[in-house]
Amino acid sequence: MAQIKLEKISKTFRTKRHTVEAVKDVSLEIDKGEIYGIIGFSGAGKSTLVRCINLLERPTAGEVYFDDIKLTSLSASSLRRQRKKIGMIFQQFNLLSSRTVEKNISLPLEGGGRSRAEIDKKVSELLEYVGLSDKAKAYPSQLSGGQKQRVAIARALANDPEVLLCDEATSALDPQTTKSILNLLVKLNRELGITIVVITHEMAVIKKICSRVAVMEHGEVVEEGDVFSVFADPKQQITRDFINTTSNLSEVYELIEQNSPVVQLKSGEKLVKLQYLKAEVSEPLISAVTQKFGVIFNILFSDVEIINGCPLGGTVSILSGENSDEAIEYLKEKGIHAKVIKDAAIS
Amino acid sequence: MQQFLENLIPNVMSKPDELLEAIIDTLIMVGIAGAISFVLGLIFGIIITVTKRGGVLENKIIYNILDKAINIFRAVPFIILLTWVLPISRAIVGSGIGVSGAMVPLVFGVVPFFARQIESALAEVSSGVIEAAQAMGLSPLAIIFKVYLKEGIPTIARATTLTAINLIGLTAMAGAVGAGGLGDFAIRYGHNRFQEDVTWVTVIIIVVIVTIVQLIGDLAVKKNTH
User: What CATH architecture applies to the domain A2-244?
Assistant: First the structure.
């Protein structure tokens, strides 16, 4: 069942001179317990779209449902009650600089009828969960970016939310810290069952933690599906562009353009690109083909990753041997996407 | 020492009681008008911040009325304001002259200025932090008290210092219409009777008061910046 349902959401910003359609007629369903990614270049409307989920931005048209409650028709105070179930973290962390770490985390709990002792207990549990117990009395200015984001996560978790919205949460962090924050997100998805919506412009983030992805361009969702299928068989050019940012296989085209000696073929050699497209591919196909047809693969590039538990990726290699055509046919039968980029026999 | 001062500032030493009274009057005017203006200016500054387009309690009508009212009162030179609000003074405090008569024009003169100062102080609170507070389900009142006023303390302290110093200047000007205080003292003796030493001493005392206010303000900013 969909936990978050966006129905034909549009958001138009009007100023005196300009009208900007940030989001155009977007419908999405996000299921309970999944990690859903929304990717797009800056200006694609993804941040506006995620703000439409908790109505920080009110859509110009369309409805938002959360747990079957129509958020778009709630009163201000009922909406605030629902917002407590939807945590949010940001690229710039947005911590209160005048409050210590523990006071930042206790902010959403204050005035909620809880006793001081209860709040203190909850705060120290949250601090321990994000691994910052020793920083309770520190001010945000004394923390690193990764630590600030951990505090923001702890604060977002204070009301035991069912959903966590992450707006470019790792975009201001270095790769190492990004990895640890992503691991933390996965941990709270698995252990606490929190549905996570990730907004990002980095395909690597989607690849690492998301189960489903929506690709946004010019305010519209142009492609959507489970991450493996989208990676294996992208339909839109923009999706291919994003995928290429995380794969090195396309570098071969640059080498060909530069006429690099690496891709100079001898007679009878073929430059082939092999890509795994099916989730069930797990046989050692290259070794099998080598033995079966007596061909040789000289691997130039290889990029295989495990996405949602399935290997995805491929290799670019120089294939030589008399039976190379048969070998390629055999690979195709096995569900490998094989493409001859350059053939010395005909070139 | 006594002899030395009597030679240096004869006209001041001849009326130490009047000087003391002038200092006290100035402090009373600054203190009371300042306290009233602080509260009113803060309230108006907050209202104008939250009712602004995109604010947590966006309200075009309230914003526009307040915005225009502040502009009008800020446009009126203080010396004109002094006589302009005289009827209001009489109605509220029962007198248009003296220390109490000066209170109303001082408040009218300072509040619009301070409200704008507060507006710009609160504008420095990052919009992302406000957004985060809204996202966590905080009410507009909680956002005002726990986020705006708390996060804004250093900039509010800076605005308060600036306004207090401005107010000290205005009280001196109010002296011109018989409000009492150091301004009145300097005009009556220093200017009208050419007792230059009175003017000098008044200036020095005002500089000292301003310096103390500035030091307190700086300290408040420093203590609240993390």
Answer: 3-Layer(aba) Sandwich (3.40)
